[in-house]
Structures are given as C-alpha cells and as structure tokens.
Amino acid sequence: MIGRLALAALLGSVIGLERERLLWAAGLRTHMLVCVGSCLIMLVSNYGFADALGAKNVVLDPSRVAAQVVSGIGFLGAGTILLRGEVVKGLTTAASLWAVAAIGLAIGGGLYVPAVATTTFVIAILAGVKPLEERWRDRMQTRTLRIVAKRGTLSIDTLHVATGERASRVRQFTARTAEDPALDEIEVAFVRLSATSVEAIAATLRANPDVVSVETVQR
C-alpha cells in the first residue's frame, strides 16, 4: 500500500512539474497531493471496511467511496479557473487535476500499467500538443490592416487584386473619410491568415502609389 502511495506521488509530480513550469496556481505539490489522496481513498475503498464485511446484514459497495473523487475533484478544479475579461484561463489545469485524480484511483486499485500509460498520455497532451494548439490559434486569429489611401482609389476589387488567392480570407472591408477629405481610412479584417501572409499583403499595398500608409493591427 505504501508503494502504491509512493507511485501515486511520483506520477502526480510528473504532471505537476509541467504545470509548475507555466507558473499555474495548481502546480507540483497540488498535483502530488491530489494523486496521493485519490490513491488513499481507493485503498480505503478496497480494504478499509474489511472488518465490517463479516457483520450480519452488512452489504458494502467498494466503488462508492472512490466514486466520490470523480465529482469531488471538480470543486478543486473550479478553484484554478479564472475569468480574465472575456477569456477563461485554467481549464487545462483543472482537467489535469481531474486526470491526476483518476491516475491515483487507478494506482490505488492496482492498475499500474494504465496509470503509467495515462501519465504518459497526459504529459504528451499538456506539453506536446500545446505548440500545435498555439500555431492553430495564431492562424485562426483575426488580423486587421488599417490603410490610408487617396480618396476613391482603393476599393474591394483593388484589394482582391492585391491579395490574390488570399482574397477569400477577407472577412470585413470598412471605408470612411479621413480627417483630410482627400483621403480614405480603410480597415480590412482577415481571418485564417498567418502574420507572414498579412504582412506580405501589407507590403504589396505599400507599393501602391495611391496608398499613403498601411498599419497592421492584431485583435
């Protein structure tokens, strides 16, 4: 039993180190405690009521105590979730705590291979998938070009010529008169375009003699 608790602390620390690296509130110690605590609950569920089994009319379900971990860990996970403006932070850490609890339960039940395999998968998801996720989000982010051009010289058709095959990525085209009546202020929003592609379009527009300035705005 002590060996199981030690293994739970070890596997919990592996996942906790990844969260600690990103300076989240639920880091190394939190993940270790959750994993060890879940393991102990599973041990109690399996072996803690052996003395009562011999009593008359006593029927025990060894899974009931352990099952409360699945729902109970949600309260701890909720404490790691923060709302900053319109962005929710901490959902991944909350999910990692939930996964660590499951790993602890597996170790307490003697399922060592699934516990180690799950730890490997969780680390791969947390550390390995993150760069791919960030690259995808960066590509999906809306980027805007703020253009100042001579009045009436830059239209949506002119823009399509400048963007070429990327014309389908234009999400919004807005034009209004600038403070100088001889100039137009135009905002063009692109979706699913990398920063490099948007900058290439900006360079093409800057080469247009009717364009006064082009500014990249990231939103």
Q: What's the helix count?
A: 7
What's the rounded overall pLDDT mean? 80
Distance between the termini: 53 Å
**Helix-strand category:** alpha+beta
Number of strands: 6
Report the radius of gyration as a whole number of Å.
28 Å
Order of helices and strands: HHHEEHHEHEEHE
Strand content: 15-25%
Uncertain spans? none
Give structural notes.
- The chain has 219 residues and is α+β, with helices and mostly antiparallel strands.
- The protein folds into two domains: 2-137, no CATH class; 141-218, Alpha-Beta Plaits, CATH 3.30.70.
- 56% of the residues lie in helices and 17% in strands.
- The strands form two sheets. Strands 4-5-3-6 form a four-stranded antiparallel sheet, covered by helices on one side. A two-stranded antiparallel sheet has the order 1-2.
- A hairpin with a 5-residue loop joins strand 4 and strand 5 (183-190).
- Helix 1 packs antiparallel against helix 4, helix 1 (2-21) runs parallel beside helix 5 and helix 4 (91-108) packs antiparallel against helix 5 (112-140).
- The model has no long low-confidence stretch (mean pLDDT 80).
- The chain crosses the membrane at residues 26-44, 65-85, 97-129.
- It is a multi-pass membrane protein.
- This is Protein MgtC.
- Residues 5-134 form the MgtC/SapB/SrpB/YhiD N-terminal domain.
- Belongs to the MgtC/SapB family.
